[in-house]
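Hi everyone, sorry if this is the wrong subforum. Our group has a chain we'd like a structural model of before ordering constructs, and none of us has done structure prediction before. Sequence below.
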Amino acid sequence: MAAEPVGDPGQGPAVPDALVAPTVGEPVDGDLSRELEDLAHRAWPPLRERRLGGWVLRESAGSSRRGNSVWARGDVGDVADALNAVGDFYATAGLPPTLQITPVSLPSDIHEALDAAGFDDTGPTDVCVAGLEEIRERLAAGPAGYVPLGAVGSPSTSADGSTSADGHRMILLDTVGDVWLDVAGQVLATFAGQRAGTLGVLANLTVPAAYVLCVLDGVPVAVGRGTVDGDWLGIYSMATVPAARGRGAARAVLAGLADWAAETGASRAYLQVEQTSTAARRLYAALGFRPVYRYSYRRLHTTATGAPR
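Answer:
Right subforum, don't worry. Here is the predicted structure as tokens:
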């Protein structure tokens, strides 16, 4: 797949997007893709799920698309019948029928069935991986012109909350707190209008998790969430308030998560980044992430009465 250009209007020519991943119909590392989907399911466990053949129907009080969509991880006997059951499941929850579709979704004709049934596409997300030590080394080095926070693991990025030369203070939390939630809620819908369902999901976690809060000049400005599952660090909920963007806060959060994960025994990292998140994509590519596969959400619109249209 050709790399897509990434750029902002008025800020010079676009540059190739290094994180564009294979999508449906393109060659993909199937084993790694399935492993990463398993990890993501444990990192964001739904509040309620129902098995339908090889599908997992997930519902989380409307919090996040993943938590309220079908994980089409295996075969079902008849796709049309399965889609009818999906419609009933989400109608009961007051949600639109939605399926998360990856290059390894099953059955193989699911894409054609969704097209025929009128499911739209809400936009692609790329799943990317990198070696944890490489991430830490690149964070420690910093890009040209960037004032580094200090060596990874130094007091400037430690959980004790000390402050670096460029004004960042990183705090590592073992549970989500009000300040963390307030910062996240300024950027991410899952921690704003969907907060109740999100807190329920986080309470259901069975893997180790950490929450990083970055304070700049005394003001909380950025957050991130990490999970460790085997030797994998999952990077989630990265958010920087608009006024602090471009000042290294996201790098500080990533450094905190990477240090914590390394101490917990992780050696690899994965994350999911939407196609439209251009600044994040540049940062992740610079830290050594490479794309594995692309997924999207296919959603069936409903009328006011809840009946499909």
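For your construct planning: The CA atoms of residues 15 and 133 lie 26 Å apart. The helical segments are 30-43, 79-93, 110-117, 132-141, 178-185, 195-203, 249-264, 278-286.
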